[in-house]
Amino acid sequence: MEERLSIELDGTEVDYRVRRSLRARRVRVIMSVTEGLVVVVPHRMRIPTPPPILIQEREWVLRQWNRWGARVRRERGLLLPGDLVPVDGRPRTVLYGPQGSARPLVTVDDRSLWLRPQPASPREAFRVVCAWLRDTARCRFLAAIDDLDPEGRFRFSRITVRDQRTRWGSCSSRGVLSLNWRLIMAPPDVLRYVVAHELAHTRELRHSARFWAIVEEVCPDAQSHRRWLGDHGHELRL
Predict the structure, then answer these.
(1) For residue 167, which of 188, 197, 139, 145 has the smallest C-alpha distance?
(2) Got the DSSP string for the chain?
(3) What is the pTM of this model?
(4) What is the DSSP secondary-structure string of 79-101?
């Protein structure tokens, strides 16, 4: 049986569940992806409300609660001030700027992503930021192609910016390059690597030795960037 309760920690109201377990030998607190904060208690143990462990571990609890809350909001298409959005491999804190521009405007600095004017709702903020990320990604893809292939040696028909769930990019037999807009969240060199990878496919569709030789010629650090995507690609999400 689980109880749904809440506690205020440093001005933040945190919801939690109390789960009694026959196998537990001590009280512990966990963060469940689906349930949020859970205090696991041995089946017959009596504990006060709120459980002292939440106060003892308040810093960890607040950090996990904020991360979990942001994840849930993103899945629901919501974005609030204070949420983090990665851009160019660095997390930027979402902030609302003063009223000014009549149309939505997004700007970034070293630490922040500013939305001006203040969005009408968290859902509108999410939509505006996603649109900005897509547009910015397209600009970066085109700039990367110009930089990697200034002489136009690689022939392709067009570029599409997509939201592939399992790929960072692809190249069709007709020379259509499809690139994932989430790459704007990765470090710039990683984005360049994916562009180089797909350009190489315009000459060799298979992942053959010849293909990898072309990639290495265009992007000498390709393997390290490929490893980065393998290790951190799951973090590139809104």
Answers:
(1) 197
(2) -EEEEEEEETTEEEEEEEEEESS--S-EEEEETTTEEEEEEETT----SS-HHHHHTHHHHHHHHHHHHHHHHHHTT---TT-EEEETTEEEEEEE--S--SS-EEEE-SSEEEEES--SSHHHHHHHHHHHHHHHHHHHHHHHHHHH-TT--S--SEEEEE--SS-SEEE-TT-EEEEEGGGGGS-HHHHHHHHHHHHHHTT--S--HHHHHHHHHH-TTHHHHHHHHHHHGGG---
(3) 0.73
(4) --TT-EEEETTEEEEEEE--S--
The domains of the chain, with CATH numbers, are: 2-75 (no CATH), 84-129 (no CATH), 130-235 (3.30.2010.10)
- Per-residue model confidence as pLDDT tens digits over 131-151: 999 999 999 999 999 999 999
- For residue 3, the model assigns a pLDDT of 58
